[in-house]
Structures are given as structure tokens and as C-alpha cells.
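Render this sequence as a predicted structure.
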Amino acid sequence: MGTQEKRIKTSMVMVRVSPEDHAALAERARDVNMTVPAYMVSCALGRRTRSQADAHILEELRRLGEQQRALHASGDGTLTAQYSVVLVEIVGAMRRLGA
């Protein structure tokens, strides 16, 4: 089913949680720009959720990687090893964040 298609939701799941747990769920849902029910369904079904902070960090890492790549390409070869190490670390950080 495409992301633009609307699913007909007719089933309901009732869950009781403590006020503290509800506050924590609401905060996490807000962080990934979802409603609490949508967040709970995504988590329960093992779907990936990405926080706005993670998305911002990934974008910054991509930007830094492009700059590092440009420096590597324009260099005279004296810093090739250092540029490569930094690029590997940037790619590793992106993978750990799920990119």
C-alpha cells in the first residue's frame, strides 16, 4: 500500500498506562512528529521511527561528508590518509543513525 493511500482503520486497541508512561510516550511521539497511537503502532510493528534530531544530525553529516569529499578531491595528496579516515568516521556515524 502506498504512503499516500488512506487505510480504513476499524479496529481499536485499548491500552492502560501510567501517567508517567503516557508522558514518556507523548514525548517520544512528539520527537518523531507522530501521534501517540501512530507511534505505538510503529514501535509494536518494528517500523523505524526517526527523531527530528536524528534527521537533522544525518543531514549535517551528509553535508560534512560532501565537504570532506571536496577537500579530498581538491587536495594535493598530502592529507589523503587523514581525509579518508574522516570520511570513514562520517559514514560510520551515519550508519549507526540508520542512514
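Summary. The two ends are 23 Å apart (CA to CA). The CA atoms of residues 33 and 80 lie 41 Å apart.
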